[in-house]
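Example complex used in Figure S2.
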Amino acid sequence: MSTEERRIVVLRSSDEEIFEVDIDVASESQTIKHSIEDDDSGRVIPVPNVDGHTLAKVIEYCKKHVETPRSDDRDAQDALRAWDTEYMKIDQNTLFELILAANYLNIKGLLDLTCQTVADMIKGKSPEEIRAMFNIKNDFTPQEEEDIRKENQWAFE
Amino acid sequence: MREDWVVDAPIVGREYQPPCPDQVIENVLENVLHFLTARRDRNAVSLVCKSWYRAEAYTRSELFIGNCYAVSPRRATERFRRVYSVVIKGKPRFADFSLMPVNWGAHFTPWLSALAAAYPWLEKVYLKRMSITDDDLARLSLAFPSFKELTLVCCDGFGTSGLAILASKCRQLRVLDLIEDELNDDDDDDGADWISCFPADGTCLESLSFDCIEQQINFPALESLVARSPNLKKLRLNQFVSLEQLHRLIVRASQLTHLGTGSFSPSQNLAPPPGPGGNEPDYGPAFAACKSLVCLSGFREVVPLYLPVIYPVCENLTSLNFSYANLNAQELHSVISLCHKLRTLWVLDTVRDEGLKAVGATCKDLLELRVFPIDAREDSEGFVSEVGLLAIAQGCRKLRSILYFCQRMTNAAVIAMSKNCPDLVVFRLCIMGRHRPDHVTNEPMDKGFGAIVINCKKLTRLGISGLLTDEAFAYIGKYGKLVRTLSVAFAGDSDMALKYVLQGCSNLQKLEVRDSPFGDSALFAGLQHYYNMRFFWISSCKITLQNCRQIARTLPNMVLEVFTNMPVAVQDEDEFVDALYMYRSLEGPRNDNPSYVRIL
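Predicted assembly (757 residues):
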């Protein structure tokens, strides 16, 4: 145990799970950071929009990124990127929960990582495939859709 | 997996409800779209649903216009609201060969007006085969305070006075690349001294290319400019910069990665005869100090005696452009044998088959090769042949793109290349004499080109020549399913040839045909396909005005332009038109055409 005092914050997920987290790790979330700044009394910080399973995953990301020192070293950067890639090998539900969490908790790095992952899923797909992937309803009339398709192809491709 | 910081994990009563993907993504859609830059992806996204269309239109930051007449500036700027970078293409490629009348169009001015109004934050403009005036350059400099990059490729209409205004007003300019442009005042002795106009207290310049400017520049001003441009990585000089002057520049800029060497010959006014060790500085160390150099070009009036000064940088070179350098095989060999990492090479055919053998022997990673003719006339001697092509096929197995001008070729060599270089994406063979057969067997070149489309499964661009019958076109139509650009000159027997292509090549976007015996029925064969193409150019064939009118009636959104090289309109309905250029457009016929370009 180090002699230096390490400050811990306590987070409570929407489903009542409790997490004790280093203050630096928790502060990766701008939302939590502001919460701590506003109220330093050490009470439990509720995270009502995020369940325990997702919050654990979020904390895993924050911990890794706080622990890894910023470096210009190419190998170190590659290693972190590789870690991120492994980290993102998750099912779609977890992905969407993570996006919601990263957005609510305002963690830029995690939000960018999850959005990049979604973007990679979209690359090379047709509109029909994208709709199917994300369960999106096509609200264009056939004529509207045809007009946009034509404009895209004739003008912007 | 739970870490040791989880203290408590009570049983949860509530039932798990998975998040709705569409709602989740809706919240972060702009962030997701930030990571999508390819046009195809953006276009697909815009068709998903209305909210995605809006988000995509709001976040598209690069606007690509493949044909400046296919859409109006107003329509483009009304749909896309936050564009930072614009690419606009104008004339078709055959304009480069004086097949288009002067002042045909593709004016930047109306686009500039719309862009200036819609995107005051615009940073980058890339124009290809457009006409841009000095006034346009002046307006551009004033309209966009954050302007950073201007690239003009094969453009005309402007001169050094426009460049002077640009240099002085665009204080954040990082890139000014003038590539194969034709300036107005090239024939004047008094161009503007634009090099002196850059900000005096330092510039942001990263890339400056002016090798196409056919005028003297103020050298002391250039020296001073290079000295106060610490971020300069790419510098391409014109032929009026001598070797001593080049030397003075690179000793101040050893951080350069791309260098266009200018004339690469000593200045005319050196008193003793030129030669290393005389009154001249020792050029070698200056080049050796440029450790980051990966791309060399220029050599406009190369004196081969001085080539050894570039030997120290050869081992790191990935791109070498000798297309202006009159070098023989031995001279090329001395350089090429050191260039093991070369990926792109452009040369003149003066290096002969011998020179190409040296390339094949050393450049195992070569991806792109272009061999240009020093004399492009039909009856010129021709210094390379199937021997050179075979040497390349044997040595450069990773080849993806080739452009090869010659006077003699054989099917066997082309077939060998098709088998050895399966990664070919671009294959353009120009046998310059008309209707030349395989010079060994005297057969048409059908089998060679057939092998290319059969074996090179990634082929998207094809240029054909030589004696070709309809059989070649049948192969292309049957196997060239990925071909997007096809260039045909002096080829084919009958209209069937064009029919095979128009009906077979489902991905065909750009078709340029000249001096081939195709007539009206060939044109009708493509009716189903023309709306899928960016353009179709056909000249010096057997197309009548009457037939063009018929097509125009049948396809209301096609714009058909009919013209001759001479400023004289085509008159007679049954007369063959000199040239037909047709393209789809959302806007209907343009109204800025000169009088001798007739739009049907």
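The CA atoms of residues 35 and 45 of chain A lie 8 Å apart. The beta strands of chain A are 8-13, 18-22, 45-47.
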